[in-house]
Amino acid sequence: MAIEKGQKYGVIILLFICVFFGILFFNNRVGNAPLQNEIIVSKNSVTVESQSAGTNVIVKELSLDERLWVVVYEERDGKKGNILGATRLSNGKHLNSTISLLRSTEIGQQYYVVLHKDDGDDSFDFTKDLPLENIPYTFFAR
Fold first, then answer.
1. CATH assignment of the domain containing 123
2. Is there a single domain that holds both residue 29 and residue 69?
């Protein structure tokens, strides 16, 4: 059975379309996926050090790509526990930023600093202003 000239071109065009979409799909699924040992670097950075227990936390350095909430959590069973305080900072670099707490940190305890995105109402609500990344920055009260 002979294939007509029109059918041959149709099969070739269909083959090219399949190859094109296959390459497009493969590049999007594999080409953009991080390698197993690759570290994805955030545009935001936080430097917080162990510090004296008290009613304030000093974040040594912040570099923020956008206006964000800087939130202090207590540690509970190896995870984030209650929120002790939060302050919103504009984008840019900040040195020695003070976060006022609702209650004091305790000597020897671990705490977390986590960045949260504001939902646009300019008021902190942990149910709406969700963590930007799941990377807590830790420090100890001494």
1. 2.60.40
2. no
Instruction: Walk along the chain (142 residues) and give the pLDDT tens digit of each residue.
Output: 555 666 666 666 665 565 555 554 444 444 444 433 333 345 888 999 999 999 999 999 999 998 999 999 999 998 899 999 999 999 999 999 999 999 999 999 999 999 999 888 889 998 898 888 766 777 888 8
Per the structure block, which two tokens stand in for 34? Answer: 């991080």
Indicate whether 27 and 87 sit together in one domain: no
Beta carbons within 10 angstroms of residue 45's beta carbon: 14
pTM over 0.90: no
- Of 140, 124, 113, which is closest to residue 50 (Cα–Cα)? 140
Pull the structure tokens for residue 96: 């020695």
Query: In terms of domains, do 33 and 96 share one?
Result: no
């923020």: which residue's tokens? 64
Count of domains in the chain? 2
